Amino acid sequence: MDIAIIADIHGNLPALEAVLADIERRGLRRIVNLGDSVSGPLWPRECLERLQAAGIPSLRGNHDRWVAEGGKGASDVFARQRLDPAQIAWLGDLPAHLAPLPGVLAFHARPDDDNAYLLEEVAGGRLVASAPAAIATRLGPTEATVLLCAHSHQSGLVSLPDGRAVLNPGSVGCPAYIDPTAPAHVSETGTPLACYAIADIAEGRLRQAATIRLAYDHAHSAAAAEAQGFADWALALRTGLARPATE
């Protein structure tokens, strides 16, 4: 059965609309959202309302949790200030795990930690791919044989030695960021395109997967971020880079 996997929208409504339109055009009826839906200097309320109206099953990411708890960073605070109490409560009550299909487990980052990378690790100030054995150790034992994760904003698919498959759909609305938390690092896709994934899963087996990248009016989103004083977001939305190319 085909399922569309979206994640890391980060309040980017034009990117979300482009992705949902593409999903509808393809005739896909099953969608799962892996979280971090609203945090960002863009359209948090509108994105939340769009997800609710569409009835899309959604997870709670680390930024969703931080928004609900009061806001950890500027993008979280921005989002929280634009949500009403019921919306904040909805965000905080989202589950940490979903099983959208038999044999499939969806979570934001790792099954036991919403703020730790699964498929990547930090080296030289950047995210690099981890070895399959390291990924299997981080996962631990799971009944599910197909795992859906997000958090890094990097699309990827890894087949583990034990036969499990791990899929990251990439980010719908935030193609690059700087994380100052030690060890400080950047995540960059190098493109402003919106990103999501489609997977064909049957009887707990991943038969086929595709990463979809879509053009949308990213200049509009970048201008909105810039108007709110978030120059780093504006750069990321325009270029897919966390730092100017000259650095």
End-to-end C-alpha gap: 45 Å
Number of domain modules:
1
Looking at the overall shape, the CATH architecture is: 4-Layer Sandwich
CATH class, named: Alpha Beta
Q: For the residues shown, what is the average pLDDT? A: 97
CATH topology: Purple Acid Phosphatase, chain A, domain 2
| Major sheet strand order | 3-4-7-9-8
* Content of β-strand: 15-25%
**Given the structure, what is the number of helices?**
8
As a whole number of angstroms, the C-alpha radius of gyration is 17 Å
Backbone structural class: alpha/beta
Helix content: 25-40%
| Principal-axis shape | globular
Low-pLDDT segments, ≥5 res: none
Main beta-sheet annotation: 5 strands, mixed
Number of strands: 13
The CATH H-level superfamily is Metallo-dependent phosphatases
Tell me briefly what this model is.
The protein is an alpha/beta fold and 247 residues long. Helix content is 30%, strand content 24%. It has a single domain, classed as Purple Acid Phosphatase, chain A, domain 2, CATH 3.60.21.
How would you describe the overall organization of this protein?
It is a single chain. The protein is of the alpha/beta class. It has a single domain, classed as Purple Acid Phosphatase, chain A, domain 2, CATH 3.60.21. The chain has helices at residues 13-25, 44-54, 62-69, 74-81, 85-92, 132-139, 218-227, 231-239, and strands at 2-6, 31-33, 97-98, 104-107, 120-123, 126-129, 146-148, 156-159, 165-168, 176-179, 185-188, 194-202, 205-214. The chain has a 5-stranded mixed β-sheet with strand order 3-4-7-9-8, with no helix packed on it. Strands 2-1-12-13 form a 4-stranded mixed β-sheet. The chain has a two-stranded antiparallel sheet with strand order 5-6. A hairpin with a 5-residue loop joins strand 8 (156-159) and strand 9 (165-168). Helix 3 (62-69) crosses helix 5 (85-92). It starts with a strand and ends in an 8-residue tail after the last helix. The mean pLDDT is 97.
